């Protein structure tokens, strides 16, 4: 018996976020569109994985939550004010170019109270002119 067709659109999306030198978490245009971060107010909850130090979870929440980061806009740029979070968990975004690959994780929706995504951390040393 044939199963459900894999959705190529879902499997070829490149959802990404990057920690800027200022500590803000910025999103690519494709990510902004897919997560619907423009328009209506949104907040993002972030939680660590308990076993993998390079894995985090984020949930987009459509109503104000006290434990969420408000989605901010500056023109086409969409970001979160996450400097204190990344400082607290010792992510050296001044030395490293830190990116997150995002993937939909429906199993986390209920726990985090929103549309949940995994955030797989990748990093590479910043070039000297980037420091």
Shape: globular
Low-confidence stretches: none
Gyration radius, in Å: 15 Å
Please tally the helical runs, counting DSSP H or I stretches of 4 or more residues.
4
Number of strands: 9
- Straight-line N-to-C gap: 56 Å
Q: What is the chains' assembly state?
A: single chain
In words, what does this structure look like?
It is a single chain. The chain is α+β, with helices and mostly antiparallel strands and 131 residues long. Helices cover 16% and strands 38% of the residues. The chain contains 4 helices and 9 strands; from the N terminus they run H-E-E-H-E-E-E-E-E-H-E-H-E. The protein has a 9-stranded antiparallel beta sheet with strand order 5-3-4-9-8-1-2-7-6. The radius of gyration is 15 Å and the shape is globular.
List the helices and strands and how they pair.
Blueprint: H1 8-12, E1 15-19, E2 25-27, H2 29-34, E3 43-48, E4 55-61, E5 69-70, E6 72-74, E7 77-80, H3 83-88, E8 96-104, H4 109-112, E9 115-125
Antiparallel strand pairs: 1-2, 1-8, 2-7, 3-4, 3-5, 4-9, 6-7, 8-9
Kindly list the characteristics that best describe this protein.
single chain, 9 strands, 4 helices, 131 residues, globular, 16% helix, 9-stranded antiparallel beta sheet, alpha+beta
């Amino acid at each position: 018996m044939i199963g459900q067709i894999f959705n190529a659109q879902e499997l070829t999306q490149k959802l990404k976020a990057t920690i800027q030198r200022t500590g803000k978490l910025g999103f690519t245009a494709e990510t902004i569109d897919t997560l619907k971060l423009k328009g209506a107010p949104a907040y993002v909850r972030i939680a660590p994985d308990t076993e993998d130090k390079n894995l985090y979870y984020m949930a987009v929440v459509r109503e104000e939550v006290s434990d969420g980061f408000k989605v901010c806009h500056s023109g086409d740029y969409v970001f979160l004010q996450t400097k204190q979070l990344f400082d607290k968990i010792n992510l050296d975004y001044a030395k490293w170019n830190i990116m997150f690959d995002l993937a939909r994780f429906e199993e986390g929706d209920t726990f985090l109270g929103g549309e949940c995504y995994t955030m797989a951390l990748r990093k590479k040393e910043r070039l000297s002119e980037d420091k």
